[in-house]
Amino acid sequence: MKKSILVLTTAAAMLTIVGCGSKDNAGGEKVTYAKTSAEVYTQSCYKCHGDKAQGMTEKKTPPMNDRQAGELELDLYDVKNEGTNQSSGTDHDKMAHNMKKLFEKGFDYDPKSMAMYIEKNFYINPHKKK
């Protein structure tokens, strides 16, 4: 019983701290994006991450098709926030620099939506038997 109460209390506290995934910005306005996640990926991201998110060794870009949406969302959030390494613990400095230029060209995205798009369209389950 005590364990259940502790789990529920912890979950409620986490939701209070991080919010419930609202797409509002810090000022409370709704954020709208000029392009869908599919448009952003197929018009920009694929150039370095590959047409199936497989990564490209010649460009030294990592694959994104080997992770599920939750992990990808953390990485994409990190990139959008200038490689602060607060979300996923990975080094995204170079991509964070590139993102500034991409945002200027209209290639902004919602990390959760983009992560779900990549997982749905490109994820390769390494544990799935062939």
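the 2nd protein, sequnce then structure:
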Amino acid sequence: MSFLFWKRKDRQQSLYEKIDLKRVPTHVAIIMDGNGRWAKSRNLPRVIGHRAGVEAIKEIVKASSELGVKVLTLYAFSTENWKRPADEVSSLMKLLVEFLRKETKELDDNNVNMRCIGDISKLPVTCQQELHKSFDITSNNTGLILNIALNYGGRAEIVNAVKAISKRVKDGTLKIENIDENTISSFLYTSKLPDPDLIIRPSGELRLSNFLLWQGAYSELWFSNINWPDFDRENYYRAIIDYQKRDRRFGGIKD
């Protein structure tokens, strides 16, 4: 193996040793951005960038399991992504099916519990079938929860929660005066998951792009200029090290 490979491994190990494993974020959420820009910078089709992004997913899933992260939520396809060219959307859906068919066994072997947030009923039938197979196969696993956001939008999620709560009020099973933050949280896709401690966005963009708007109210944000296909353990470790340096007060004051 090359000198550069071992140099990279040494950097990763050095960073890993700086992480306090007792204070690793419970829930990390990542906006996987920059696949298209990665491909464009290499004069490659966008779909090649998306395929390269899958390799980054595998590495970050493994790193999360090793660090003891409990939940990893990956923003894979938003409600707005349907606006992209039809051939790109089709390629993304085929890539999703390919990933599920190839990787579910390894996820299961590594005790990963795969879940999803978003309205997957709008995805192609083949995608829905493969997703449910993966859910079933990994449902009893007790390790990392790999939570994929597909056809997900934070605003749509909140609207759906409001509608469901309104229905409960209308039929008399919920009183208006009993509605609080916990009520709203219980009607979101993430109702059984902790809010994200850390939200990571590579690619240089400095926004949430309709991702976990309610849940991310007090999340720590970490941005990087690295495009997602190049986002590796080194970048991930740096994000967690930076997270551990922050003073999380949740609006209060610490003595």
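The longest strand covers residues 71-78. Strands lie at 27-31, 71-78, 113-117, 145-152, 198-201, 220-223.
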